[in-house]
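Aim 2 progress update. The chain analyzed this quarter is reproduced below.
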Amino acid sequence: MFKEKFDLGYGDANSLAHVTRNIDEFSSANEINADDAVLEIYAGKSEPLRLVHDAVMTEIEQIGDFEIAAKKKYLSLRRRKQFATVGPGRKDDSRWV
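Predicted structure tokens:
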């Protein structure tokens, strides 16, 4: 269909077919649940900082509706654009000293 309708070559049409077929699988597999991400972010040495995280999130929730996009090492807080990130940071991060 892609070859005929869009005048694509075999390789391009084949790639497009694979992408469109797997797009739902790909998007759901890459979504990270915020609650699961928080457990993973604050595991191990960062566990004591979980109390700080919870307090910060409680305060931020008072500003109104926003979306939480979980990343591997932090949470991205967004409305139309990202306005904050919440995470434990790094031990060697001198920006906060």
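Residues 10-30 form the longest helix (21 residues). The beta strands are 67-70, 75-78, 82-86. These observations will guide the mutagenesis experiments scheduled for the next reporting period.
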